[in-house]
Amino acid sequence: MKAKIEVMLREDIFDPQGKTIVNALHHMDYKSVSNVKAGKLFYLELQETNKDKALKQMEEMAHELFANPVIENYKIEIIDL
Amino acid sequence: MKAKIEVMLREDIFDPQGKTIVNALHHMDYKSVSNVKAGKLFYLELQETNKDKALKQMEEMAHELFANPVIENYKIEIIDL
Amino acid sequence: MTEKKAIELSGLSPAEIDLARKKLGRNLSVEEIGMFGALWSEHCGYKNTKPLIKKLPVTGKHLLQGPGENAGVVSVDDYAIAFKIESHNHPSAVEPYEGAATGVGGILRDVFAMGARPIAVLDSLRFGKRDSARTRFLVGGIINGISDYGNRVGIPTVAGEVVFEDQYEGNPLVNVMCVGIAKKDKIIKATAKGKGNLLFYYGSKTGRDGLGGATFASAELSSEGEDKRPSVQVGDAFTEKLILEATLELLEKKLVIGIQDMGAAGITSSSVEMAGRGNSGIEIDIDQIPARAANMSAYEFLLSESQERMLACIEPSRLEACMEVMKKWELDCAVIGRVTDSQNVVVKENGKVLADIPTRFLLDEVPFYEREVKRPAYLEKAASIPPYHLNKTNNEMLKDLLSDVNIASKKWVYERYDHMVQTNLLAQPCAAGGALLRIKGTSKAIAMATDGNGRYTYLNPSVGGMQAVAEVARNLACMGAETYGITNCLNFGNPEKSEVYYQLAKAMEGMGKACKALNVPITGGNASLYNETDGEPILPTITVGAVGIVDNYKKAVTAAFQKEGHLVGLLGINKEEIGGSLYLEKACGKIAGKCPSLDMELEVRLQRLIRELISKSFIASAQDVSDGGLSVALCESAILSGKGVSIRMEE
Amino acid sequence: MKKINFGVVVFPGTNCDKDTFWVLDKVFHQNVRAVWHTESDLEGLDVLVLPGGFSYGDYLRSGAIARFSPVMKALVKHAQKGKAVLGICNGFQILAEAGLIKGAFLRNKGVHFLCREQNIKALNKNSIFTNQYQKDEVAQVPIAHGEGNYFLNQDDLKYTLDNELIAFQYCDENGLADESSNPNGSTYHIAGVFNKEKNVLGIMPHPERASEAEMGSIGGKKVFESIMARI
């Protein structure tokens, strides 16, 4: 089974990396970009074949390791079983 | 317009972060995880409303800044106009 | 934001609210409640520690600036050395990476706001149970936070401590010290004065970071639902590096009257404290504050703890030049108010007055509390050593001590810090009890170290307070340096509990006594109280940071043995004192016994002797006997030098 | 003694410019001036140094943003004229991102930032930067980086080997270059590499931190002495 976890900073949390990238893009004349938010992405391969069990496991993993609930949100997506 | 750029290391390149995460997960008894690949994720907001123009611009930005072609691949996705 | 919610968030007691109402003769606005809550918090107002702080020695022959400014300053020749230690315990318990990173950012700004270029960071860290998952989580986050932030700004982390004791499990201690250097005439005070002068804001835009931070810094954490603030303060080391260079450029060009960083309680504390020092009034215009988040309220602007922001007081004629500097360093800036002669702090939003409070009342009339003191019941029981059976040989016990994480090499920590940048550090961080940094272009070097001992202070608060000062000064003396100044970080439980207040009062008394004996002034510091989880306080811990000078660093020594055939001697008296030792803790599983005694008169002579022996090159290395005792001290010197050592006990 | 004109380039976020300035000025007594990243007139400068640090906070990738600064266009012209360019640590990363030197940088194999003394050996002594070293001479020069894992794909590695473009390799105190003496996992244990004409050198260890005995190692002195001997 293949799955994907997206981890992004919560809306109200300051994203210094995103801000710096926007400034850089403007210096490179990509003036149309108004905002950039930077985040992390993880592709996982699991031995698990049962979809619900896999989802439950990934929910825990995301909460404990991939994301820091205090400042980050996460999205889980099963790509193929 | 909202868009998303995913940047991942090319297949043939060793990913020390991915390996460290797999070890940590096994340490936390998530034995079913066999592989993890870590990458970067960017959500962009653009003033551009023309889809093709936006795609072309993002192609350039991804190639020049967001990804380093020597070691990384990128995927662009328009989320909503 | 209702009045009731503002009062709840402010942490002010009903009596304190009434005091403010009586003084102003009217009800308080939501913004005023927030401002009183911030400035009358423990963090900014020292309301539980002020009476005790007053008794500390604050004069010394090398002192240039004592407590009351952003950082303390001592001087050598025409150089000024600014330094201070601060705690970021609560934010680091909630979010270790950002908590520690913003802790570094804040203390750096305190130093460069004085006009000094930061040249070193020291991190004094205390964690809980050695093998708990929570400790592993905190250790990883906190060390990463300090490493990423310090490395990015280009300030070397050169010394510090990493200590593991079960009593810190719910409340890690993250005390960070910064040392900076400037020419004496470049040192600047954080004042706002001169009617019509401008309040010039520069650095990052303001968002809703860490709202409630100042009041939160002294709030007790409960372990079930950790009291997570809605938005944690996030650090941006890149912008910090820009405001550091921009600030020093403003000072180089003599463009400002005073500067302060926006620390806890952001705009409120910086503007009011600057006005207080200049004995003037100020008027703040909320509409001018650069905003990062949409439609923020005045309350949020006033209390936001967005990082990497500075406030300067400048003459209108300098505005153009100041904006030019900000343009070069690509930093946001704006005039957000001006100095008035009204002796009041006035806050306006599109012309409407939201707050109007006498500056002196906000700063000088912080209600402070002499709490009731009660000798802790545990002291009797802890003083007696429980019977224990040591089923290990001496060798096995020594190996146990040497492999204990509190003793073993800290290379796994400092190799994550760029401790070499700025090319001033003269020896590897492990080579001595502290760090020695050369002053380029001179023969002199600055010695620096941090020390603290929660175990001794637990067993005997007043002697524990003395030991912390004596040990940090001893570490400097063992490099050949005389201590010029001391800064301190008070990490204690809830002061409203009389047993905790006993620990606090006695430890501070001991610290003051040791400083007087050493003739070394306390130049400032900070207090972090309410470090308790579910009613269990941490070990009472004063972390002391010291700076000193070696006149000729070519003669300085480290702890490593130098040559075969050298004789090894012990200075001072070796007494049968294993109370509070790591050895005893391992043997009987808890902190017990009488705290080792400390004769300050002998200590002062001993340190003077060591310094003289080093300056005359009579000795080749020196090491103080501390954690793990004499056997560990000998092993450390041997391991560092790759040589062996043989000792005859009977001498 | 003829003095060489050095330009030390400063980007927002550069940290080691003052250390490099100190060594060139006070230890080697050369002419040195700081070059702000928006300048594009580099006339009169013999050697350009891109010092270490975290240009633009190393956000996105080390050096990814700095390469677009105005000074880089002038620096490329300077290099095309055969003039010397030395990229140290972050400077090396910027040169790679700008394509002046082949390859790219990955996270250290140990994931964490690493700062410690490190042995390297000089593989190729005929260049502006290495002519004072003996062939395979082992030198101690400290490293300090988090993304120092230099990567070359197969073709670029072959190109680099065929043209003898490796300047320095990580090794142990006896000169053995292997997995255990390689601190970050870089391809072929590469610590420093030239461009084709060998007038541009990228090196991850910091020679400016190893040019004075009291700093603990002097393995970097010969990089500066080589430049002074050749220009």
Low-pLDDT ranges of chain A: none
Distance between the termini of chain A: 4 Å
What amount of the residues of chain A lies in strands? 35-45%
Helix content of chain D: 10-25%
CATH T-level fold name of chain D: Rossmann fold
- Count the beta strands of chain A: 3
* Major sheet details of chain A: 3 strands, antiparallel
Proportion of strand residues of chain D: 15-25%
What is the general shape of chain A? Answer: elongated
What are the segments of chain D in which pLDDT stays under 50 over at least 5 consecutive residues?
Answer: none
> Roughly what is the average pLDDT of chain A, rounded to an integer?
92
What is the oligomer described by this structure?
heterotetramer
Please state the structural category of chain A: alpha+beta
Looking at the structure, the CATH topology of chain A is Mth169, Chain: A
Strand order of the largest sheet of chain D: 2-1-3-4-13-12-11-7-8
What is the 3D form of chain D?
globular
Overview of the molecule:
The complex is a heterotetramer, with two copies of chain A (81 residues), one copy of chain C (651 residues) and one copy of chain D (231 residues). Chain A has one domain (2-80): Mth169, Chain: A (2-Layer Sandwich), CATH 3.30.1280. Helix content of chain A is 35%, strand content 38%. The relative contact order of chain A is 0.35. Chain A has 81 residues and is of the alpha+beta class. Helices cover 36% and strands 20% of the residues of chain C. Chain C is α+β, with helices and mostly antiparallel strands. In chain C, helix 19 (461-477) runs parallel beside helix 20. In chain C, a hairpin with a 2-residue loop joins strand 12 (344-349) and strand 13. By secondary structure, chain D is α/β, with parallel strands linked by helices. Chain D has five helices and 13 strands. Chain D has helices spanning 17-27, 70-80, 90-97, 154-162, 221-230, and strands at 5-10, 31-36, 47-50, 84-88, 104-106, 114-116, 119-122, 138-140, 143-145, 149-151, 166-170, 190-194, 200-203. In chain D, strand 1, helix 1 (17-27) and strand 2 form a beta-alpha-beta unit. The longest helix of chain D has 11 residues, at 17-27. The C-D interface holds C 144, 147-148, 151-154, 236-238, 241-242, 328-330, 414-423, 426-428, 438, 440-441, 553-554 and D 12-13, 15-16, 18-19, 22-23, 26, 36, 52-54, 56-59, 112-116, 142, 144, 146, 206, 208-209, 212, 214-216. Strand 2 (33-46) of chain A pairs antiparallel with strand 2 of chain B.
